[in-house]
Amino acid sequence: xxxxxxxxxxxxxVLVLSCLCxxxxxxxxxPEGAAVPAxxxxxxxxxKDPRPSTQLEQLIQSMMPTPVPLPAAWEQIxxxxxxxxxxxxxxxxxxxxxxxxxxxxxxxxxxxxPTTRQISVTISGIRGSALSDGQVKxxxxxxxxxxxxxxxxxxxxxxxxxxxxxxxxxxxSAIPSISPSDPYYVWQNDMVKGIVTTQVLEGDGxxxxxxxxxxxxxxxxxxxxxxxxxxxxxxxxxxxYGKIVVVDAGHGGIDEGTLVAGRExxxxxxxxxxxxxxxxxxxxxxxxxxYYTRTTDWKPSLQQRVDLANDVEADFFLSVxxxxxxxxxLNGTEVLFDSRQDEWEEMNxxxxxxxxxxxxxxYSGFLNRGLVPREHNLSIIKYAEVPVALVEVGYLSNExxxxxxxxxxxxxxxxxxxxxxxxxxxxxxEKSGIEAEKKE
Length: 440
Ligand SMILES: [Zn+2]
What we know:
- The protein is an alpha+beta fold.
- About 30% of the residues lie in helices and about 25% in strands.
- It has helices at about 1-30, 55-65, 160-165, 265-285, 300-310, 350-360, 380, 400-405, 410-440; strands at about 35, 95-100, 105-115, 120-125, 135-140, 145, 190-200, 205-215, 220-225, 230-235, 245-250, 290, 315-325, 335, 370-375, 390-395.
- Strands 12-11-13-16-14-15 form a 6-stranded mixed beta sheet, with helices on both faces. The protein has a 5-stranded antiparallel beta sheet with strand order 1-3-4-8-7, with no helix packed on it. Strands 6-5-2-10-9 form a 5-stranded antiparallel beta sheet, with no helix packed on it.
- The two termini are about 45 Å apart.
- Zinc ion binds near residues 251 and 257.
């Protein structure tokens, strides 16, 4: 009897551990921004829980096929009472797309657009009508919502009075507030902030619909499907990934950056090329989730770039730029940082910037010009709430630096140095974490 129980326990542990291995492998392989196909859960199937083994107990629990009562918010989801939903889904924030007639052969794909906090959901092979906004349902913090979210009523911004106009203290900017009578008020917990749908009639008579959903935050998405609905479960990145980095290629799109070297060598292109080389290196390693503000030639706003880093609570926020100056003799690498983070105990902006300089110095081919505190007039640095560094690789206005910057070999070395800097940064964080533990 005892032997039996032990064997059963062993079998459970083996089963759980192998599931974890598969899950970890799955998570690591998932490429950034890639489309994720929906999976149909079989009865008793569970969401691909990406949490590490510290939550082993919970995982074992959630794998048990025990029936659980559905929260009241689920009552308005078609089929939710009779379909076999993965148990954990019932405790999560979920977007539910209700299928109509003719969705038997339909397939759903999801593309993440983290910089704009959007997801693009494409459903192909529809043999009926496209989804209406009303069929976009969701459960957020235990409350049910459906349809188009209302637009908030603009709140008037108070104008400065003559009394404080001349005062030396700046007028505090109005804190946006929504009055309880605004229909938007009750919707503030809703994660969906906008729905835009487009549809295309295919040659075979089927319909392909794309829903562009604007959300309140950046999430990691897990997809499920049954005969009634598609389910998109939302998890915050920090609950999934142990290490998160945000990499920003400066400028882009209509913003070409410094044009001192002419249109042949635009700053935005050099920044992006270095970042794509860095991406290749980061893609080849395991364990660090990286969000890129852009991987193509478009212009995210400065606010969107820094918001992404703050929203995902990045361990490091790296922005890549090139410099220019009227004094053409100026050359070399500078790293801009936020000295206000100096008081932070563990990793901070200054230390991250120092590490970058250490890794690039003597390797990238550029002169080391040192650190530059720039917290007051540079949005990316000013508003970052995470260790931030803005590297100005070299001067496009300097002949020697330009000669280096237009070489693939140099860009590769810079990318390699930045890659080493990120790894080095994590090593230091781990070391200080271990030392802090020892002190306790
Ligand atoms: Zn720049």
